[in-house]
C-alpha cells in the first residue's frame, strides 16, 4: 500500500540531543542548581536520549563567574564534579558542549577528549565568523572530539552566504551541519529548501544534517519533524521546551513522535512534573504573542524579551507598532 | 528560479474562518458576554476575515438555556440582537453557524437564509451520522445557505470509513468538505494523505477542502498551513487559539502566514490584548502536557480536561500512566 504509514517505522541513525541546560540556560544565565542539572542528566539516561548538551564552553572574561553559572563556561572541573564518573559506553549517552565563535577561549580551554567527560564540541557561529568556526572545528577534532557546525540565524542571510558557509564547512572534520532557526522564523517550505541545500552540499562527506528549532510561532516541533522526515539525523530539543523567549522544540513532543522503542516518554513526564513546571513560578517561556511577532518579522527575540520584562508588557499593540515601524 | 519563495504570493480563493465564539465557546458553555462577541465581530471586520462562526445551532433540550449561553443555540432572535444590521455585501464578512448531527433541532430551527443574518451552515458529524448530515446539508442548501460537511474525529476511523463518508457527501450540495483533527493527533504526513483523499473524492464537484486543527501537540498552525499549501481554501482559526483543552489554530499566527494584503494582524493583536489575555484569569487553554499526551494517544481531550480540573492536576506521571494503561 502506497499509503502505508511511514511513521510507524524508524531510522536507528536518528539521534536526539537534549540541550535543556545549554540553550535553556540562556533564560537564567546558566544559574541552574546542580540538582536540576543532575535531574536532566538522569532523565536523558532513562529516556534513551543520545546526547546531552551540558552547557557552553564560553569565556569567563565575557561572562563573569558568579553572574553566570558554571554551565556558561563548562570548566573541566565543573564537568568532572557532575559528570566525572559518566560512562559513555555503558549508558549510550554522550555529553556535548557548545563553543561560540567570538565568545570562547577555545584555544586555552579545550582539553583532549580522553581527559574530559565531553564527547562532542558543537561550534556555533554567525556566517561572518565561519573562518574562526573552521579553526575551532579543526582543533576540537584534533583533540579527539566529535564536532558539528551550527550556523546560527540562517533566516537572516542570503542564499549566497549560506552556500559560502557550506563550502567552507565541507572540508572540515565536522560530523554534522546543523540547520539553526535562531529567530523561529522558518516555515516548513524553507526547512525543506535548507535541508536539501545542506544535504546536497555535504553529500559524499559523511556529514549528517541536524535541526535546531525555536518556537516563536509554535513551529519548533513541526519543523523538527519535517527535517527528520527529510533525513536529518540529529534533532535538538529541550525538556518542556525550556529556553529563552519562546523556547525550543519540546522533548516531550519529539519523543512522542519517534518510533524507536529505545526512547521513553515517562521519565520526561516525571522531570516536567518535578523540576520544569515548578520553574514556571520564576521563569516564563513559550510562544507568547510578542515572540510570534518577532518570529514573524524575522527578528531576534531580544526586543520581545525586553518588552515582556517592562511595565508595558500588557500593551501588545504598542509592541506590534514598534516592531512594524522599525522594520 | 525553482527556489523562488512560493510564500510571497497568495491564492485569493483562500478564505479564513474565525470560530472563536463557536468552538472557543466549548470552554465555557458559550457563556460569553455580548461585549466579547461584539469585539470578536469587530475584529473580524477590520482584520479582513471572510467568515465568522458565531455559534452552534444546537438544541436547547440538550443544552438548557441559562446553563448554556445563547451561542450554543443561535436562535434567530439572538442572531438578530447582535447581528441584525450586519451587511454581508458591504463588509465582505459572512456569518456562519454549526449544526451538530444528533444534537440539533435543525428541522424546526433553520429559517430561510434571507430571514437570517447567517450565510452558511456547517454540518458537523461523526462518520456513523453521515446519513443525517446529508439530510441536514440538503435542507440548509434548500433554504439558501452555503454549507459544509465537517467530518469530526477523522483520526479515529478507518480509511474505508473515510471513503464511505466522502462518497456520501460527494453528491450533496455541500460547498466544502473539511478535514477536522478533533483530537490534535495528526502529523503533516497524515494531513497530506487526507487532503489528497478528500480532494480526489471531491474532484469535479466544485467543492473545496477546509482544515480545522486542534493544538494538542502544538501542530494546529503547522497542519493548517500544510493544508493551505496543498490547496485547502478554507482555514479555521480562533483568536489567541481560544478553545477547549489545547485550543485551536491561533488566528494571530495564521494571519502572519498569509500574504493576502487584505488580512490585517493589528486588530487581532488589539483583541488579544483587550479581551483574550484577560480571559486567561478564569479560563485555561493551550498545548499543556496532558493534552500532548491525549493527542499522542489519539484520545478525546476530555480525560485531560478532567485531570486538569482535579486536585491531582500536578501529578503528570499519574495521568500519563492512566492514559497508557487504558490504551
Run of helices and strands of chain A? EHEHHEHEHEHEHEHEHHHHH
The counted number of beta strands of chain A is: 8
* Rg of chain A: 19 Å
Low-confidence stretches of chain A: 1-5
Q: Report strand % of chain A.
A: 5-15%
Short summary of the structure?
Two copies of one chain form a homodimer. The first copy, chain A, is α/β, with parallel strands linked by helices and 327 residues long. In chain A, 39% of the residues lie in helices and 14% in strands.
Description:
Two copies of one chain form a homodimer. By secondary structure, the first copy, chain A, is α/β, with parallel strands linked by helices. In chain A, helix 5 links the parallel strand 4 (118-125) and strand 5. In chain A, strands 1-2-3-4-5-6-7-8 form an eight-stranded parallel β-barrel, surrounded by five helices. Helices cover 39% and strands 14% of the residues of chain A. Chain A has helices at residues 34-47, 76-83, 88-91, 106-109, 130-142, 159-169, 188-202, 220-230, 251-257, 266-279, 289-296, 302-308, 316-325; strands at residues 15-18, 51-56, 94-100, 118-125, 146-151, 176-181, 208-213, 234-237. The interface between A and B is large, with 45 and 45 residues.
Topology:
Two copies of one chain form a homodimer.
Chain A: E1 15-18, H1 34-47, E2 51-56, H2 76-83, H3 88-91, E3 94-100, H4 106-109, E4 118-125, H5 130-142, E5 146-151, H6 159-169, E6 176-181, H7 188-202, E7 208-213, H8 220-230, E8 234-237, H9 251-257, H10 266-279, H11 289-296, H12 302-308, H13 316-325
Parallel strand pairs in A: 1-2, 1-8, 2-3, 3-4, 4-5, 5-6, 6-7, 7-8
Amino acid at each position: 500500500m502506497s499509503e502505508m504509514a511511514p511513521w510507524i517505522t524508524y531510522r536507528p541513525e536518528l539521534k536526539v540531543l537534549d540541550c535543556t541546560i545549554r540553550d535553556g540556560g540562556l533564560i537564567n544565565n546558566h544559574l541552574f542548581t546542580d540538582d536540576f542539572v543532575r535531574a536532566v542528566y538522569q532523565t536523558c539516561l532513562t529516556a534513551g536520549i543520545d546526547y546531552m548538551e551540558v552547557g557552553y564552553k564560553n569565556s569567563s572574561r565575557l561572562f563573569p563567574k558568579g553572574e553566570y553559572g558554571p554551565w556558561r563556561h563548562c570548566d573541566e572541573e565543573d564537568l568532572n564534579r557532575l559528570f566525572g564518573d559518566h560512562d559513555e559506553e555503558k549508558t549510550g549517552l554522550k555529553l556535548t558542549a557548545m563553543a561560540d565563535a567570538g565568545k570562547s577561549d577555545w584555544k586555552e580551554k579545550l582539553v583532549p577528549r580522553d581527559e574530559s567527560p565531553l564527547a562532542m564540541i558543537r561550534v556555533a557561529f554567525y556566517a561572518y565568523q565561519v573562518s574562526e568556526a573552521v579553526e575551532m572545528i579543526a582543533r576540537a577534532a584534533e583533540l579527539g572530539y566529535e564536532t558539528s557546525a551550527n550556523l546560527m540565524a540562517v533566516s537572516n542571510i542570503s542564499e549566497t552566504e549560506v552556500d559560502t558557509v557550506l563550502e567552507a564547512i565541507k572540508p572540515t572534520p565536522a560530523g554534522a551541519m546543523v540547520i539553526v532557526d535562531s529567530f523561529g522564523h522558518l516555515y516548513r517550505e524553507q526547512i525543506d529548501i535548507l535541508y536539501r541545500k545542506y544535504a546536497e552540499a555535504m553529500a559524499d562527506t559523511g556529514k549528517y544534517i541536524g535541526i535546531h528549532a525555536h518556537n516563536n510561532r509554535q513551529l519548533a516541533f513541526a519543523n523538527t519533524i519535517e527535517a527528520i522526515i527529510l533525513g536529518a539525523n540529529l534533532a535538538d530539543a529541550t525538556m518542556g521546551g525550556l529556553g529563552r523567549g519562546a523556547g525550543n522544540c519540546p522533548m516531550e513532543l519529539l519523543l512522542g513522535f519517534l518510533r524507536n522503542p529505545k526512547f521513553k516518554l515517562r521519565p520526561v513526564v516525571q522531570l516536567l512534573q518535578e523540576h520544569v513546571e515548578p520553574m514556571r513560578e520564576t521563569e516564563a517561556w513559550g510562544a507568547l504573542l510578542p515572540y510570534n511577532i518577532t518570529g514573524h518579522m524575522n527578528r531576534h527575540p531580544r526586543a520581545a524579551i525586553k518588552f515582556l520584562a517592562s511595565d508595558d508588557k500588557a500593551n501588545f499593540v504598542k509592541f506590534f507598532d514598534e516592531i512594524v515601524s522599525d522594520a
